[in-house]
Amino acid sequence: MCEREVQATSRHHLVPREEGGKYGPTVELCQPCHSSVHRFLSNRDLAQRYSSVELLRAAEELQTYLRWIRKQRVERIANRRARR
How many helices (H) and strands (E) does the chain have? Predict the structure, then answer.
């Protein structure tokens, strides 16, 4: 999604498993992008509005993140919300 060269990727279901995408198409994303997709977008939004990498890249909710990550050399980020 960020178009960076990274060593490791993780599999992202374009339609989340919880929304019926268990056997659907997947893409490989770097860990920071994968974590951020799930932080900024709900599974329902992913299933209904963002079922391709092109749509994810265009998502308004991800634009600030994408501008930032494209300049970074990080392989991992910790951006999970703290549980209360």
Answer: 4, 2
Domain count for the chain, please give it.
1
80 inside domain: no
Q: Which domain holds residue 64?
A: 10-69
Q: Which two tokens stand for residue 74?
A: 């990080």
Nearest to 75 by CA among 16, 27, 35, 26: 35
Confirm if 43 and 19 have CB atoms less than 8 A apart: yes
* pLDDT tens string 21-67: 899 999 999 999 999 999 999 999 999 999 999 999 999 999 999 99
Read out DSSP for 46-78? HHHH--SHHHHHH-GGGHHHHHHHTT---S---
The answer to whether residue 41 is domain-embedded is: yes
